[in-house]
Amino acid sequence: MRNKEWFPERFSELAKENFILKSAYKQQSEHFIYINFLYSPPFSKTFYLQMYSNGNQLYISKSTMRDQESEKEYVLIEQAEVSGTLVNQLLHLIKRAAWPIFSTEENNVVWRDGVQAELCVGRGFHETTFSWWLGIDPVDWGDLDIIAQKILEINNKAAYTICRKEYFEILLEESLPSMVSPRERSLLLTYKVNGDEA
To answer: How many helices (H) and strands (E) does the chain have?
Structure first.
C-alpha cells in the first residue's frame, strides 16, 4: 500500500482487526471467480482468505495477524495453490447455492461466544457478501455453513508458503468529548510502502 495512506475511522477491536486483515494485502483476481472468507473464532487468531479459481485450480492468499515481543504487530501473508476434488466441490456448492439475500426466519439467539464468518463471492464488478455466526445461522442460510466448512477443509490441506510481512502502526487520537463518548477513539492506520519479503 502507498506510504501515508490513512484510514480515519472508529472501530471496535474486532472491526479494527478485520479491517487491517482485509487491507494489508489485495490479491489480483482479474476476471476469475473470487472467494473471500473471513474466519473469526473467539479464542484463536482471526484469518482472512482471498481465493480465485482458474478452472479447478484455486490460488489462495492467507492473511493472519501476528505479534511478537521483539517486533511490532504485523500481518503475515502466506500463499498456496490447491487443485482437485476439494476445489471442484467448493465451486459446485457455490454455483448451486440458492439462499435468500436476507433471512426473515426467526432467530432467537441474542449473544454467544462463537465463530463469526464473512463470505464474499464475486466476479468482475459483481459480488455478494454474507456475514453470520457459524453453526447458528437461520434455517434458510444453512448452506453457508457447508461452504464455510469446505473452505476450512481446503485451508487445512493447503501447503502455505510465507510471502511477506506487512507491518502497520496504530495511532490513537482522542475524539472531542462533545462529539462522542470519552471511551471512543479514532484510529488512524498507516502501512509501510513495502512489507518484508520472504
So the answer is: 3, 9
pLDDT in tens, 117-142: 999 999 888 888 988 888 876 677 77
- Rounded CA-CA distance 142/108 in Å is 16
The string of DSSP letters for 38-95 reads EEE-SSS--EEEEEEEETTEEEEEEEEEEEETTEEEEEEEEEEEEESHHHHHHHHHHH
For residue range 149-183, list pLDDT tens digits in order. 999 999 999 999 999 988 876 544 444 444 444 44
pLDDT band at 16 (very low <50, low <70, confident <90, very high): confident
The 10 Å CB-count burial string (b at 16+, else e) for 40-56 is beeeeebbbbbbbbeee
For the record, the C-alpha cell of 38 comes out as 473471513
Q: Fill in the DSSP letter of residue 175.
A: P
| Cell numbers that stand for 54 in this block | 482458474
Beta-carbon contacts of residue 163 (< 8 Å; ≥ 6 apart): 61, 77, 78, 79, 197, 198
Question: Could you tell me where the DSSP H helices lie in the chain?
Answer: 13-24, 85-95, 142-157
